[in-house]
Design goal:
Keywords: ATP-binding, DNA damage, DNA repair, DNA-binding, Hydrolase, Metal-binding, Nucleotide-binding, Stress response, Zinc, Zinc-finger. InterPro entries: AAA+_ATPase (IPR003593), DNA_repair_RadA (IPR004504), P-loop_NTPase (IPR027417), RecA_ATP-bd (IPR020588), Ribosomal_Su5_D2-typ_SF (IPR020568), Ribsml_uS5_D2-typ_fold_subgr (IPR014721), Rubredoxin_2 (IPR041166). Helix content is 23%, strand content 23%. The chain has 10 helices and 21 strands. A 9-stranded mixed beta sheet has the order 6-5-7-8-4-9-10-11-12, with helices on both faces. The chain has a 4-stranded mixed beta sheet with strand order 13-14-16-15.
């Protein structure tokens, strides 16, 4: 005889299950959220099918072709545009510009004479109209509804019959007859499943706004990310107008594309060439600066790294970073001291990027090291030089990916010399002359590409090495 199933207890906040009741959830640590779950339903029986199965070669793809959203940078991230019947989840921090971006997408879609329904659960209809007036998003084919009930939203879909549905946001919509409050695990799961079901059956492109937690992850159950086709993250610094959209999941295109936007009081606009935002134009050569080439998805971006080193009498010198990984900057400082003779143990070190850029890629290690050495010696980096390479603990430089694309982008912006890691098997030059004493030789896109084996050789070639350069004797 099979054992009868014991009643399980489930957390209403995160969906964690346990065999016995506890006062505190073992997953999200919420108090009083664990309650007895409903008994499981009986085993499902066979039911009639909606459509018979057909060979995959007989399935038509004409109804699932890409349609432009009217925002080129968003089309770039999506892989070509909006797909009919696709469910898209856009997540981001409060105030980053999610509603502004989607209102622009809805207005552009309406201008193509495609009916659009914008459902807002966080604002009133008049508030959205004010934003539309400010950004120029008023159109006759753009319908607006302020609803927080799932049944009412489905009724609006039946009446309007849109080609694009925007729900802002999925955490504010509640389903009657389902336990929990709007935004809870059960409610979000039911609302998302209903909207995805309507999107698939009626071939409606559905974009849902999702909230994020304090650690940056999408709020609600993890199943929310599984049921949708595309997961986009909208991110940006509050002190900067620059915004970026990244694809974390995309069933219709690549997931390594990045879209760049400029958020202002007039609305949001695409930034097709964002490199100029992260490079400062100096009137004269100043020490402590170096330009790095980083990859944001498939797009190379140039970002300037600035460093400052000042003597201090404190026993614990400060190490302050902005836009850089503090642990990697500390590792670069240790390598400079051990293998290049640059002593910074009695200096406060400040390292940052220009324009709010965030450099987390190891390929920016060489630019950080060059800017620190330039700030310490007081010698500026020669004009027209970019540096890219990962630094190892032994001082060696490791290869970086997509090197030709990085060099081509630097050459397009007028840089003449690229300092890169040496390829395996490449012969080490006998003497490394300073770059400003060597005439440019067309190697890649008219640039002179200088490959060096380690960080000491790079500083020597850039005339940033100290006279006492080298490791300390053992």
């Amino acid at each position: 005889m099979p054992k009868p199933s014991r009643p399980a207890f489930r957390c209403s906040e995160c969906g964690w299950e346990t065999a016995k009741w506890v006062g505190r959830c073992g997953e999200c640590q919420a108090w009083g959220s664990v309650a007895e779950a409903a008994a499981p339903a009986t085993r499902a029986a066979a039911a009639p099918v909606t459509r018979p199965a057909v060979p995959i070669g007989h399935v038509s793809v004409e109804d699932s072709t890409f349609r432009s959203s009217g925002v080129p940078e968003l089309d770039r991230v999506l892989g070509g545009g909006l797909v009919p019947g696709a469910a898209i989840l856009l997540a981001g921090e409060p105030g980053v510009g999610k509603s502004t971006l989607l209102l622009e997408v809805a207005a552009q879609t309406a201008r193509y004479q495609r009916r659009t329904l914008y459902v807002t659960g966080e604002e009133s209809a008049s508030q959205v109209r004010l934003r539309a007036d400010r950004t120029g998003g008023v159109h006759d084919e753009l319908f607006l509804a302020a609803e927080t009930d799932l049944g009412a939203v489905l009724t609006h879909i039946e009446q309007v019959r849109p080609t694009l549905l925007v729900v802002d946001s999925v955490q504010t919509i509640g389903a009657s007859g389902v336990e929990g409050v709007p935004g809870g695990v059960t409610q979000v799961r039911e609302v998302a499943a209903a909207l995805v079901r309507v999107a698939k059956t009626r071939n409606i492109t559905t974009v849902m706004v999702g909230h994020v937690t304090k650690d940056g992850s999408i709020a609600g159950p993890r199943v929310l990310e599984h049921v949708v086709d595309v997961v986009l993250h909208f991110e940006g610094d509050r002190n900067s107008r620059f915004r970026m959209v990244r694809a974390m999941k995309n069933r219709f295109g690549p997931i390594d594309e990045v879209g760049c936007f400029d958020l202002s009081s007039e609305g949001i606009s695409a930034v097709t060439d964002p490199t100029g935002l992260f490079v400062e134009n100096h009137h004269a050569h100043v020490p402590g600066t170096c330009v790095a080439v980083t990859m944001e998805g498939r797009r190379p971006l140039l970002a300037e790294v600035q460093a400052l080193a000042t003597p201090t009498a404190s026993e614990r010198p400060r190490r302050t970073t902005s836009g850089l990984d503090g642990s990697r900057v500390a590792m670069v400082l240790a390598v400079l001291q051990q293998h290049c003779g640059i002593r910074l143990h009695a200096h406060d070190v400040f390292a940052s990027t220009v324009g709010g850029a965030r450099l987390s890629e190891p390929a920016s290690d060489l630019a950080v090291a060059v800017s620190l050495a330039s700030a310490t010696t007081g010698r500026p980096v020669p004009a027209g030089v970019v540096a890219m390479g990962e630094i190892g603990l032994a001082g060696e430089l490791r290869r970086v990916r997509d090197l030709p694309q990085r060099i081509a982008e630097a050459a397009r912006l007028g840089f003449r010399v690229a300092v890169v890691p040496m390829e395996p098997g490449e012969r080490v030059p006998g003497n490394l002359r300073p770059v400003d004493h060597v005439h440019p030789v067309p190697n890649i896109d008219g640039m002179r590409v200088v490959s060096v084996p380690d960080i000491a050789a790079a500083l020597q070639m850039l005339k940033l090495a100290r006279a006492e350069q080298g490791p300390r004797p053992v």
